[in-house]
Amino acid sequence: MEYTLEKDEKLASIAKGIPKNANYTSKYIQNKIIQTLADMVLGEVRKKYESADSARFCLKSDGTRDRCNVENLSVIIRVVRNSMPEEHLIGLLDLQQLDAEYITSEILLHLSDAGYSADSILSQCYDGASVMSGVRGGVQALLQKRLGRYVPYIHCYNHQLHLVVVHAMQSEPCAKRFFSLSSSLYNFFHHHYVLNKHDAPCIKKLLEIGWTSHYEVTRCTVDNQEQILSILSEMTEDDDAAVDLCTEASGLLCQIKRHYFFEIGKFLVRVLGVLKPANAILQSQSVDLCSASEVVSGALDSLKNIREDDCWGVSSPAEDESHPTKRRRTMSKHLGQSVVLSTLGHTDSGDPTISPYQSLKRSLLNILDRAISEMETRFSHKNIDLMTTISSLAPKSSAFLDSTLLHPLAVMAGTVADVVSLKNEVLVAKQMLLKKCSKETDLSTVCKLLQ
Question: 2-155 in CATH: which number?
Answer without folding.
Answer: 3.30.420.40
